[in-house]
């Protein structure tokens, strides 16, 4: 029994260090930061921000995982007090260069002691940012979000869909008639294969969730995946009510909707 406890503790500790540490290191890469600058709002984000505009305009907003400012441009103009945080200092520096006179800070969703209870009307954690930490830290993050969100305030986030048909994959080589491009394809395949061999044994699969070494950034990361049923149950246990769900095309969904074609799901939750 003692051996089993030690093994389980070692596994959990390894999972925590590997998931959080590996992913943060990747998000501090200048190449990743520059790629995020070019990204725009996704269809479900546009629909949610339009539909729930009344909960955003002239309100106090916390933008968690703001990255390079993909969501900053729209939220800062709608709100009466915008704050963007990210646990990658490189991302925050990028935001500060792009947006002057806007409040940004290097922060961690797992411990937001710099914010008061019930401080924000609207909180957004976009582009699957919550999936970059392990299960225990995820629950701690949700608890912190619940704490700093006002009663009946909205929490919007996305999370990788465990039911997606391509959630589990392996590196594949692409072919091109252009020699230079083909060399690039070979290099990418080599990097992906190396990373996959290094990380696949650290995956976690159980009934509630999975931590998968997926295709992102050439298989260099470990990502949290969950289905709609377990995510809504998770939110309920943390004191939230799920009021809407969207697929990546912007279609509204329910628990029974076919979601195999959606890589992630957007959730709109209200603090109960």
From TrEMBL:
Pfam family, one: Methyltransf_25
Tagged with keyword DNA repair: no
Top-level lineage group: Bacteria
Stretches assigned to the Methyltransferase domain: 61-153
Record has Transferase as a keyword: yes
Single Gene Ontology MF annotation: methyltransferase activity
BP-aspect Gene Ontology terms: methylation
Keyword entries, A-Z: Methyltransferase, Transferase
InterPro entries: Methyltransf_25 (IPR041698), SAM-dependent_MTases_sf (IPR029063)
PANTHER family documented for this protein: TRANS-ACONITATE 2-METHYLTRANSFERASE, TRANS-ACONITATE 2-METHYLTRANSFERASE-RELATED
Protein name: 2-methoxy-6-polyprenyl-1,4-benzoquinol methylase, mitochondrial
Organism encoding this protein: Candidatus Scalindua arabica
């Amino acid at each position: 029994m003692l051996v089993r406890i030690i093994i389980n503790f070692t596994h959990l500790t390894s999972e925590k260090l590997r998931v959080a540490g590996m992913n943060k290191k990747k998000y501090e890469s200048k190449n990743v930061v520059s790629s995020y600058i070019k990204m725009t709002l996704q269809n479900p984000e546009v629909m949610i921000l339009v539909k729930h505009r009344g909960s955003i305009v002239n309100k106090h907003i916390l933008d968690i995982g703001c990255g390079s400012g993909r969501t900053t441009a729209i939220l800062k103009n709608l709100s009466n007090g915008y704050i963007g945080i990210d646990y990658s200092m490189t991302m925050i520096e990028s935001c500060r260069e792009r947006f002057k006179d806007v409040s940004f800070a290097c922060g961690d969703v797992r411990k937001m002691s710099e914010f008061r209870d019930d401080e924000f009307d609207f909180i957004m954690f976009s582009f699957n940012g919550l999936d970059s930490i392990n299960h225990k830290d995820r629950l701690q993050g949700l608890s912190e979000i619940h704490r700093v969100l006002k009663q009946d305030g909205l929490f919007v986030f996305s999370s990788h869909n465990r039911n997606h048909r391509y959630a589990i994959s392996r590196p594949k080589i692409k072919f091109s008639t252009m020699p230079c491009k083909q060399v690039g394809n070979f290099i990418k395949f080599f990097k992906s294969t190396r990373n996959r061999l290094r990380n696949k044994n650290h995956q976690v699969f159980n009934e509630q969730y999975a931590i998968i070494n997926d295709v992102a950034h050439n298989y260099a990361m470990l990502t949290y995946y969950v289905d709609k049923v377990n995510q809504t149950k998770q939110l309920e246990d943390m004191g939230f009510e799920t009021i809407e769900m969207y697929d990546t095309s912007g279609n509204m969904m329910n628990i029974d909707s076919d979601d195999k074609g959606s890589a992630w799901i957007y959730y709109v939750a209200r603090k109960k």
